[in-house]
Write a structure and sequence with these properties.
374 residues, alpha+beta, 5-stranded mixed beta sheet, 12 helices, globular
Length: 374
């Protein structure tokens, strides 16, 4: 079982925003998830493929991977090809770049006991390039001012700066299932300023369980998110509106509520799930009980059903074209694009109200149409 840092780089987005959450989470057991194991398997395959491309002799982990499938094979191929491209690019300005795969990076100079693992580190004289593979599909990860990547860069600098005159830090998130390659550059001096002015003092607070709790989007992966009082206070502030119907609220009030609705719904669902698990463990909540939920009928033996229906002279099967995701998994992304790119259309999406910071362009509204007619 790999050791994890108390103040991990992967959780730095959360403990930098909410320092005491680190100590709070440390006391809660992590049951893990199939998504985490899926990511672990994908990383093992990435390591193998990059090492193989570099002419080394790694052991193929495929037969020991629980979640290996065509999609994982294709995504890790893309990652290995991207790393190979970056190595070749590094060689254009450095005859012998240093290539480190799954390297332990120690940034404890700024974060107590802080360390992490860099998927790929390329050092080419004055440029340090950190590449991080993300197999997750749900959250789009951005490299810009990404604290996890910045912590990794600090660890690499601390170890190798004595050998190289590094001036530029390049950080890349490679997230193939979201078609996302995000790269951010920062100077060495600016990274060091962030480390001394922000990272180091906040890490000390977090390590000691000090500082103030703060609720926000960083709560999403917090193990204490269901019972955190600060998050509850943050969401219950909406109670001041008494949940009146929108016609009773003006535009300013609705605008104040909109940014909070997603957090409020997520918090409510977290509370419900937490309460269910506690109730199943014996906790009693006044006025509530655990009952069996609704379920749908299903065949107890599909083979027997098929045989019985066929014997009766009927065809028990339906033939259906695979969906785009399943077809991509079957063919692989490259072959899918070769064969079907000209046969794919993307209909206009359903209108969605989002913050102005969203990068998607605004669509025409009824007001815009009216102005056009004027």
């Amino acid at each position: 079982m790999p050791k994890h840092a108390y103040l991990s780089a992967s959780a730095s987005h959360r403990w930098l925003a909410c320092p005491p959450s680190a100590k709070l989470c440390a006391g809660i057991n992590d049951s893990g998830s199939p998504y985490a194991q899926q990511g672990t398997d994908a990383h093992a395959l990435c390591e193998y493929k990059v090492e193989k491309l570099m002419g080394r002799n790694p052991k193929d982990p495929t037969e020991n991977l629980t979640w290996f499938d065509t999609e994982m094979d294709d995504c890790t191929d893309q990652y290995a090809a991207y790393v190979a491209e970056q190595i070749e690019e590094a060689k254009t300005h450095c005859s012998d770049p240093l290539i480190l795969i799954e390297e332990k990076l120690d940034f404890s100079k700024w974060v107590p006991e802080g360390f992490g693992t860099g998927d790929c580190v390329i050092i080419a004289d004055d440029v340090l390039h950190i590449i991080d593979f993300k197999y997750g599909l749900g959250i789009l990860v951005d490299a810009e001012e990404n604290p996890q990547m910045m912590c990794y860069a600090l660890g690499a600098l601390d170890t190798y700066e004595c050998l190289y005159n590094i001036e530029t830090i390049r950080m890349t998130i490679f997230q193939p299932r979201r078609d996302n390659i995000s790269t951010y550059e920062i100077s060495r001096d600016d990274l060091m300023k962030w480390a001394e002015d922000i990272l180091k003092p906040t890490a000390v607070l977090a390590y000691n369980g000090e500082g103030e709790f703060h609720a926000g989007d960083h709560c999403q992966f917090c193990k204490a998110k269901a019972t955190c009082r600060k998050r509850a206070e943050h969401n219950l502030e909406l109670a001041q509106y008494d949940f009146e119907m929108p016609p009773d609220l003006d535009e300013t009030e609705i605008a104040a509520i909109l940014p909070r609705i997603d957090d409020l719904v997520a918090w409510a669902n977290d509370i419900k799930e937490y309460a269910l698990q506690q109730a199943l463990s014996g906790t009693e909540y006044p006025g509530f009980k655990v009952v069996e939920g609704k379920s749908n009928r299903k065949y107890s033996d599909e083979s027997a059903v098929a045989s019985t229906v066929e014997a009766a002279g009927f065809d028990p099967y339906e033939k259906k074209l695979l969906g785009i995701t399943a077809m991509t998994s079957l063919l692989g992304k490259k072959k899918f694009n070769e064969l079907l790119s000209g046969l794919i259309t993307k209909p206009q999406g359903k209108p969605t109200l989002v913050p102005e910071s969203d990068k998607r362009p605004a669509i025409n509204t009824a007001k815009d149409d009216f102005n056009d007619e004027e």
